[in-house]
Structure formats: structure tokens, C-alpha cells
Amino acid sequence: MSDERRSLLAEKTPFPDDLDERLRAQLTFLVEVDQLKTVLRQSPLAAADRRENDAEHSWHLAMMVVILAEHSDRPIDVGHTIQLVLLHDLVEIYAGDTPLYDSAAGAGQQEREVAAADELFDLLPPDQARRMRSLWDEFEERRTPEAKFAKAMDRLQPLLLNWMARGGTWRTPGITADDVRSRKAVIGEASSSLWRAGKRLIDEGEARGWSRSGVPRP
After folding, report:
1. DSSP assignment of 13-75, as one string?
2. Which residue ranges does the record assign to the HD/PDEase domain (predicted)?
3. Where would you tag: which of 76, 84, 206, 208 has the fewest CB atoms within 10 A of its CB?
4. pLDDT 10s digit of each residue in the chain, 218 long?
């Protein structure tokens, strides 16, 4: 990251000087993360002919946690899991979205996102900055049942959208149905039933020609 300080959105219309310092930091952060609405993903929407943005993706994951939590193989704290999915992509405001099937774009992804987390969460009061960073690290490391389920939702949601688009990013040049299965297998770390359903959709998509079949093994 450059030593030059980034201009913040809140600076375009500064808050009154007499605003409480803690509240100022919190509002500055909330204005800054409005940029999540501008980060486009590769996944198509089911309801419109356009790509989704990161804010729409994060909202959809939160709804999926509420609806699908009963399918977790281990008990999870739904509220905690919702926090994980709502903040997991905030770093992409500064780091950008990295398409799942783009290996070249994935080079250096972890370093970019860690630097973005350091910069973005530091806008908050210290106690909240530590809390947000801890949640982000938890999601990335998948060290808890909640983080595993949150990651499963992050993989299942675009699978559903690609099914609705009759292929979507499954049609990425050079990608096969086996590649899709490999990248989505993490769903099974949290929910065997959801992974069975996910594989069923991938298999059916391959059968319908919505993804490429792999080279037959001898």
C-alpha cells in the first residue's frame, strides 16, 4: 500500500466539527463502506440482466444464513454467522473483486486483501476495529463452525445464480464442470446436505451443456 493517505468519501462532505469523536469515526467508516455497492462481481443476477455487486452478494448471503442454518452439520450461532458474511467482502472496496475462476487475478490476492483489511478497519474506533478484524480473520481461516458455514454460503450463492443463468460463470473459457466441483467442495465442510444439492445442480448443469465436461480419463 502506498504511503500516501487515501481520500475518504466522508471528506467530500465533512461532518460538523462538534460531532462526537467516536461517532465521527463510526459514520466515516459507514460512509466509506457504501463503496461496496460499486464493486461488481462476475455472477449474474437471477432477477435482472446484469451482474451483481458485492453489497447485493453480502445481503443475499445473510438471508441464506437465516434460511439455511438448519442444514449446518454442526450447531451455529446464526447472528454471529450473519456478521461474518456481511463483512467478509468489505476488503474488496480497496482490494477489488477476484473472480473465482481467474487464477492469474488470484496471484497476490491474500496480500492485497490483508492490506485492505488493515486500512479499512482502522477507520473504526480501536475496540471495533479489533472486533471487525477478528471476524474477518475468522472467516478467512474457517476455524469455527460459523466461519465454515459462512464460507459455504459464499460458494453456494453464486452456484444458485449460475444455475438460474443456465451456466453463467461456469462457461468461463478453460473451466470445466470438474473445476466447478473442486472450487465448490468447501460447501461440504459445513453441510453435507447442501453439498449434495450443490453437486446435483452442477451435475445437471453439465448434462444440459451449461458447463464443459472434463477430458475423459483413460
Report:
1. SPPPTTS-HHHHHHHHHHHHGGGGGG-EEEEEPSSSSSEEEHHHHHHHHHHHHHHHGGG-SS-
2. 50-168
3. 208
4. 455 779 999 999 999 999 999 999 999 999 999 999 999 999 999 999 999 999 999 999 999 999 999 999 999 999 999 999 999 999 999 999 877 776 666 678 899 999 999 999 999 999 999 999 999 999 999 999 999 999 999 999 999 999 999 999 999 999 999 999 999 999 999 999 999 999 999 999 999 999 999 754 43
CA distance 121 to 218: 51
Cα distance between residue 56 and residue 60, in whole Å: 6
The residues pairing with 53 across neighbouring beta strands, listed in sequence order, are 40
Q: Which long-range contacts (CB under 8 A, 24 or more apart) does 128-136 make?
A: 128/26, 132/87, 135/83, 135/84, 135/87, 136/87, 136/88, 136/90, 136/91
Rounded to whole angstroms, the Cα distance separating 21 from 25 reads 6
- Which distant-in-sequence residues (6+ apart) come within 8 Å of 158 by Cβ? 41, 42, 43, 57, 100, 168, 169
pTM for the full model? Answer: 0.92
First to last CA, the chain: 48
Amino acid identity, position 105: A
